[in-house]
Design a protein that fits this description.
By secondary structure, the chain is of the alpha/beta class. Helix content is 44%, strand content 15%. Bound molecules: (3R)-3-hydroxy-L-norvaline. This is Nucleoside-diphosphate-sugar epimerase.
Length: 316
């Protein structure tokens, strides 16, 4: 049985439904700090538990009650919100993860928890960022993700807990909005393009960041979960990416379909500083070699699908 924490978030809301399709509704328990509007189908298509992962006791109860043997821990505070409330970010991202790993150790569960390109900082090589390199992030979110990678490695090495994870780049999707990250501009731009044929970007022209369309991200989770553990040299921190672009590149891709679309800029210094501290492009060869990572969507294919799906969602 799989428990998904943060199951109503940008990744969780789609991953839960995919996992239920693959493994059966009754084998995937969804949980979130609170119920949310707009997720009725998810909350009704299988077991849903209100669960705050900083409550270790309740977490253990849920795992035992449902005989969980795999925990997919997606509950987290992202980079931009994390800078507004660093203490909450530490509490949820690290104390929450610690509880997940402790329960996994006691109840013999596997653990998948994502890391992020946010583990890299200003002293990390920016282009073709290596799998193994300097990690001195300057955001609390990044600090929690580096600590999280090390904690997951420790629980594997010390206790044999089967921990796995990937460093996600910015994720773009049309079902659920992202929860306060720095790459969120690349989601908002599609909504604005359809609604107003223009978008004012809070990230400056020329700021390249790694990105990925959600279908590729979901496949990465399933592929890594099902990978042969004997072939995993790395475990909790695979660099994965599908594309790297700056705001003007995604604007150009949208203009091919909406010629009158215009982008302009009103840079947010906080989120720009975060973006500037992250890589321009990752080297994801380790993931390709160790478990066959192979993304399907490039920028134009993503734009095509996003605009099509959002037109339906927005009733345009
Ligand atoms: C964020 N979308 O912006 C998340 C992610 C790499 C970006 O960690 O914080």
């Amino acid at each position: 049985k799989i428990l998904v924490t943060g199951a109503l978030g940008q990744i969780g809301s789609e991953l839960t439904m995919l996992l239920r399709e693959i493994y059966g509704n009754d084998n995937v328990i969804a949980s979130s700090r609170r119920k949310k509007e707009g997720h009725e189908e998810l909350m009704e298509s299988g077991v849903f538990e209100v669960l705050d992962i900083t409550d270790g006791k309740k977490l253990a109860e849920v795992v035992k009650k449902h005989k969980v043997n795999t925990i997919i821990n997606l509950a987290a505070i992202l980079s931009a919100v994390g800078e507004q409330n660093p203490q909450q970010a530490w509490n949820i991202n690290i104390n929450g993860l610690y509880n997940v790993l402790e329960v996994a150790r006691e109840e013999n569960c596997s653990v998948f928890t994502p890391s992020s390109i946010a583990v890299f900082g200003p002293t990390t090589p920016k282009d073709n960022t290596p799998q193994d390199t300097i990690q001195r992030p300057t955001t609390m979110y990044g600090v929690t993700k580096v600590a999280g990678e090390l904690l997951c490695d420790y629980y594997y090495l010390k206790y044999g807990v089967d921990t796995r994870g990937v460093r996600f780049p910015g994720l773009i999707s049309y079902k659920t909005l992202p929860g306060g990250g720095t790459t969120d501009y690349a989601v908002h731009i599609y909504y604005e393009a359809l609604k107003n044929k223009k978008y004012t970007s809070f990230i400056a022209e020329g700021t390249k960041m790694d990105m990925m369309y959600m279908p590729d991200a979901l496949n990465a989770v399933v592929q890594l979960l099902e990978a042969n553990p004997d072939k995993l040299v790395h475990r909790n921190a695979f660099n994965i990416t599908a594309m790297s672009f700056a705001p003007e590149d995604i604007a150009a891709s949208i203009k091919k379909r909406i010629p009158e679309f215009e982008i302009d800029y009103d840079v947010d210094p906080v989120r720009q500083a975060i973006a500037d501290s992250w890589p321009n492009s990752l080297d994801d060869s380790a993931a390709r070699e160790e478990w066959g990572w192979d993304p399907k969507y490039d920028l134009d294919a993503m734009t095509e699908d996003m605009l099509e799906k959002l037109k339906v969602k927005l009733g345009l």
